[in-house]
Amino acid sequence: MKSLRKQFVDLIVTLLVFIYVIAPVAMIIMYAFAEKWYAWHWWAPQKLGFKWFKDSMLLQEIPRALFYSYTIALVVTSVTLIIAFCSGYVLGTKRFRGRSLIDQIANLPFAFPAIVLGIALLPIYSRIGLLRNYWGVVLVHMVGAIPYTLRAVIGSFRSIPPELEEAARNLGANKLKTLYKIYLPLTWPGLVAGAIFAFTWSLNEFVLTLLLGFPTIFTLPVNISQYMGEYFLSPQRAAVLGLFLLIPTVALLLVAEKYLTPESMGGGLG
To answer: Is the pLDDT confidence value at 156 over 80?
Structure first.
C-alpha cells in the first residue's frame, strides 16, 4: 500500500514538474506558428504556418536584434574563454598569498543584481563613451559571463595532477607549449561548459543591455519586452523571437548533458 502511494505521489510530482516546464514552451511554440485561432477557445489554433516568422523578418529591427544578440554572445564567449583559461591556470594550479581573496573577488558579480550593476556603470559608461556602444555591451555582458566560466575552468585545472606539468617542463616544454599540449586537451570539458554558460547568459541578458545599450544596441530580449506590452502588444512576434533564444539554449544544454560527464569534467582524466 505504501509503495503504491509513493508511486502515485511520484507520478503527481513528475506530472506537475512536466507541466510547469513544458506548458510555457508549448505556448511559445503555439503562438509562434498559429496564424488563425478558433473564436470559442484560445488553446487550439485553427491554422498553423510561418506567417509570423516571415512578418518578423520584414521588420528592420528584428534582423538587427538577431545580429546584435548572436554576435555579442559569440564575442563575449570567445574573449571570456581566453580570460578564463589564463586566469584558471593561475588560480587552479598555483598556490600564492591572496589566491582565496582573488577567488572571492571573482565571485562578486554573483552577489550583485543586474539592475544595481547597470545603475552603477551608467555614469561611468556615459563619461568614457561606452554608453549605447556595441563594445560597451560586450564588456558588461562579460562581467556576468566570466564568473560562471571561471568556476568551470578552475575546477578542471584543479583536478589535473601537477606532476604532468613538471614532467612536461623537465622534458623541455616551455610554459606556452605546456598550456597548449597538456592543459588545453585536459580542460576542454570545463572550457565547453564555461562557453555554454557564457553564451547562454549573454544571449538571454536583458537588464544590462536595456540600461546601457538601448536604443542604439537592442537584442532579442529587449525586443521581446517591447512586443509584450512595453510599447505595444504582439505576443506572436514575441513568441517567434523567444524561439530564437530557446532553441540554441536548449541545444547547448542537450550537448552539455550528453558529453559533459562528471568524469570528463574532472580534467579529462576519468
So the answer is: yes
For the segment 60-108, what is each residue's pLDDT rounded down to a tens digit? 888 899 999 999 999 999 999 999 998 888 888 877 777 778 877 777 7
- Distance from CA of residue 58 to its chain's centroid? 28
- The reply to whether omega before 161 is within 30° of 0 (cis) is no
Q: Which amino acid is at 46?
A: Q
In degrees and rounded to multiples of 5, residue 60 shows phi and psi of -65, -35
The dihedral sign for the CA sequence 20, 22, 24, 27:
negative
Range(s) of the chain covered by CATH 1.10.3720.10: 60-265
Cα 83 from Cα 81, distance rounded (Å): 5
Class of domain 60-265 as given by CATH: mainly alpha
**Which residue reads 503527481 in cell numbers?**
12
Q: pLDDT tens-digit profile of 165-211?
A: 778 777 777 778 788 878 888 888 888 888 998 999 999 999 999 99
The Cα 25–Cα 114 span in angstroms is 25
Q: CA-to-CA distance for 161 and 164, rounded, in angstroms?
A: 6
Q: Considering the entire predicted model, what is its pTM?
A: 0.83
